[in-house]
Specification:
By secondary structure, the protein is an alpha/beta fold. It contains 5 helices and 11 strands; from the N terminus they run E-E-H-H-E-H-E-E-E-H-E-H-E-E-E-E. The strands form 2 sheets. The chain has a 9-stranded mixed β-sheet, sandwiched between helices. A two-stranded antiparallel ribbon has the order 2-9. This is Dihydrofolate reductase.
């Protein structure tokens, strides 16, 4: 089977926003409170950022296990990596995740302002000024036969959707409204010309949307 480009465990609000306005160092999701968006994932036993034993099992946990299954590399936009804009003023900033990022694979950060690669624990970040097609080709080589995860944010996912490169996508719809910010869609029906869609409600209150190519 060919390597897939997968979106996994990406959460949006009920009104279609994946992040709020006004991202800053202190507020990675802008005006949006990330807790109502991401509590479904953080509560599970298998969530990649879990630091203590415990957590829920069931549907949500299954979805979080899929987040890392057979992933050999990740592509993300610069806004997911950090809040800086324009040329890098220095190279001290190394992402939101501290000394042990949760990715544990090569990560390719799309930016118009490249900087040297660096490694933290078992994650290496590379910075590319590249088209979606070029970035995906580079990530597939690094993934060594496994799938590539498209990690976001919203603008990056939309860019790869517009380039028709996404193979499967899991989006969790949280039962909150943000009102403004970075919108993934007006309606998931916008994607039904290219994707099948299965909708699976969860007892946690989120609704899991599973897309795969027609």
């Amino acid at each position: 089977m060919s390597q897939l480009l997968r979106v996994t465990c990406f959460t949006v609000s009920r009104d279609g926003f994946g992040a709020g306005e006004g991202q800053s160092l202190e507020r990675p999701f802008g005006h949006a409170d990330p807790v109502p968006l991401w509590s479904w994932a953080g509560a599970t036993a298998s969530w990649v950022n879990r630091t203590e034993p415990g957590g829920t099992r069931g549907l949500d946990d299954y979805m979080t296990r899929e987040h890392t299954r057979n992933i050999g590399a990740e592509i993300m936009g610069r806004n997911k990596f950090g809040p800086q804009r324009g040329p890098w003023k220095d190279h001290e900033w190394r992402g939101w995740w501290g000394d042990t990022p949760p990715f544990r694979t090569p990560v390719f950060v799309l930016t118009h302002h490249e900087r040297p690669s660096f490694t933290l624990a078992d994650t290496t970040f590379h910075f590319l000024d590249a088209t979606p097609e070029e970035a995906l080709a580079r990530a597939r080589r690094a993934a060594d036969g496994r799938d590539v995860r498209l990690g976001g944010g919203v603008a990056t996912i939309r860019e790869f959707l517009e380039a028709d490169l996404v193979d499967t996508m899991h989006v969790a719809v949280a039962p909150v409204d943000l009102g403004r910010g970075e919108r993934l869609w007006d309606s998931p029906a916008e994607l039904l010309d290219r994707f099948h869609l299965e909708t699976v409600p969860s007892p946690s209150g989120v609704t899991h949307l599973l897309f795969w190519r027609r």
